[in-house]
Design brief:
7 helices, alpha/beta, single chain, two-stranded antiparallel sheet
């Protein structure tokens, strides 16, 4: 059966309200179409009227070659020669701009794009960047950012409230994959990821040991190492608690539904605070109470 065409979508969308580069293309009426169906005439006058439409065109990412020409100047007495300083670079004398380091690292870390696939994508676009070169750029970028990462972890340690969770992540190893974990630590201002080969509680211990405040996490015992009178106060996650009641609904529907509704009331309070723009303030606390 033939596929039924959908009617064009009307109204605005998030794309329509997004700032982006624009270009305008004017399409002239082909000469072959300038023929009147009524009189057969071929003399037409152009009108200052257009029929407009908008489409979104994908322009693939590309590499450009930037040739830096550093000017030189000389003392009029002939005793000193001065050259313009080189532009900022990740590595002195390096061939690649910081923008390429950033693109590779973002694609790998946020979009889960393996480095060899990035090399294949560059090759399809006509740019022969080898997988080994991309790998070198990724690891060099990580080393350059290591001091900034250390500062971010320090900011997490200082936070009064830290939210934490861990999720499995497969890692290639000798023709197979092994299970590793990415631990996520979130504060009001930072989100820090810590990779670990295991789910051991050593990861939260190393990061949060000898810190104070609240730790918001699920019931996993790995967080027990940083919970106690001389460390952080453990706060339970309402979303995890609700999940268990949903699982138990078939066993005691009346009792469970009452609890789920009460949790829904709590969620409504949080939405109200967010809509009023008072989240995290004293007014938020008053609403909760």
């Amino acid at each position: 059966r033939g596929r039924k065409e959908r009617a064009p979508r009307k109204g605005t969308s998030a794309l329509d309200e997004t700032e982006m580069d624009e270009r305008e293309e004017v399409h002239e009426v082909p000469q072959a179409d300038k023929s009147c169906e009524l009189c057969g005439g071929t003399a037409f006058d152009d009108l200052e009227v257009t029929e407009d439409s908008t489409v979104y065109k994908y322009v693939p990412p590309k590499l450009i070659r930037v040739r830096h020409r550093r000017r030189k100047c000389r003392c009029r007495n002939g005793c000193t020669l001065v050259t313009a300083p080189p532009p900022p670079a990740v590595l002195r004398g390096g061939r690649f701009d910081a923008s390429l380091y950033a693109a590779i690292m973002v694609s790998r870390s946020f979009d889960a794009m393996p480095l060899h696939r990035q090399a294949e994508a560059f090759a399809r676009a006509g740019f022969p960047l080898s997988a080994s070169t991309i790998c070198d750029l990724f690891h060099t970028g990580a080393e350059v950012l290591r001091p900034l990462y250390a500062v971010m972890l320090d900011e997490v340690r200082k936070a009064d409230v830290v939210k934490a969770d861990e999720t499995p992540q497969p890692v290639l190893a000798d023709g197979k994959t092994r299970r590793s974990y990415v631990w996520t630590f979130v504060t009001d201002t930072h989100t820090a990821f810590v990779h670990s080969a295991s789910r051991s509680g050593e990861t939260p211990r190393k990061l949060l040991e000898d810190t104070h405040g609240v730790l918001l996490a699920d019931g996993y015992s790995g967080y027990n190492k940083v919970e106690g009178p001389d460390s952080r106060t453990r706060a339970g996650c309402m979303a995890h608690a609700r999940r268990k009641f949903v699982d138990a609904e078939s066993q005691a529907p009346d009792d469970v539904m009452w609890i789920i509704q009460r949790i829904g009331d709590l969620y409504a309070i949080e939405r109200q605070a967010a809509e009023l723009g008072v989240a995290g303030t004293v007014e938020h606390l008053k609403i909760r109470q």
